[in-house]
Amino acid sequence: MAALGWLTPRRRSATARSVLAGEAAAEAARKASRETDTAEAPAPGREEPGAPDFPVAGDEHAAAFFDLDNTVMQGAAIFHFGRGLYKRKFFQRRELARFAWQQTWFRLAGVEDPHHMQDVRESALSIVKGHRVSELMSIGEEIYDEYMADRIWPGTRALAQAHLDAGQKVWLVTAAPVETATIIARRLGLTGALGTVAESVDGVYTGKLVGEPLHGPAKAEAVRALAAAEGLDLSRCAAYSDSHNDIPMLSLVGHPYAINPDTKLRKHAREREWRLRDYRTGRKAAKVGIPAAAGVGALAGGTAAAVALHRRRR
After folding, report:
1. Is 67 a catalytic residue?
2. What does DSSP say about strands 204-209 and 198-201: parallel, antiparallel, or unpaired?
3. Is the pLDDT of residue 193 over 80?
4. Phi and psi dihedrals of 63, rounded to 5?
5. Could you confirm whether 69 is annotated as catalytic?
6. At what angle do helices 77-87 and 114-128 cross, to 10 degrees?
7. Candidates 37, 53, 59, 69; catalytic one
8. In this predicted structure, what is the pLDDT of residue 172?
9. What is the percent of the chain where pLDDT is above 70?
10. Which of 70, 84, 184, 297 sits at a 20 to 30 Å CA gap from 172?
């Protein structure tokens, strides 16, 4: 801790929360993955031709980490989840209007705004407070079918499948609730998910988080913690994201990809010669200044974590 003495108290506190959030997410992801290892994986979704040839088959020390929102799925998972909760009368029309505005802004801008994301997360926490973990997990399965299944990017799905076919583990890494992220990972046949861990006591949400949302530096901490626990060599791993907020995570691995990148990430990726893929339409990509290259893990796992922690292609 002495080495961090130069940091301000505020910065030191934020860093500690990021580490806690990352470690909690890693522990929750590993627990959920162990519980589903024997489950039959669903049939993979439609894939695009030309999957990358870089994943090295049989490399047990390599894995892939995928951001979720606007990388694997169009839009933000938490907004789609909010729509599903509104349909089930978890909250009133004014809260739905807030969710709708946030989702509209996100789709138009194509990037994450930390203030918008924090606002909607706080709303979601207040909405689920007092509800049981099992109830939200069951509802999450239904919401995936209703609002998320048709929004998976086929191109990114093909990239993930290439890693799976090479025998590598594939993890989602997202600020979305770990339970929502784990449902999506399981439906796509992925290994598991690192996500924001919400606190629960006796299987009931408290309305609080463990650490902070898994965003920005916290994602890097989660990947670092998971890699250490799994015995991975990060220089042989790959990471994929659309957002400049995930540069810390992308910088950790030997194979960073910018997928549907925002303007800042595109610039950063080109300066460092990172691989870049864009699966949006030309019109959508043009809105954010990018030329088109082509046309809530179970919360039980999050609870356990809270207790425990209290083939190259160019």
Report:
1. yes
2. antiparallel
3. yes
4. -150, 175
5. yes
6. 30
7. 69
8. 98
9. 62
10. 84
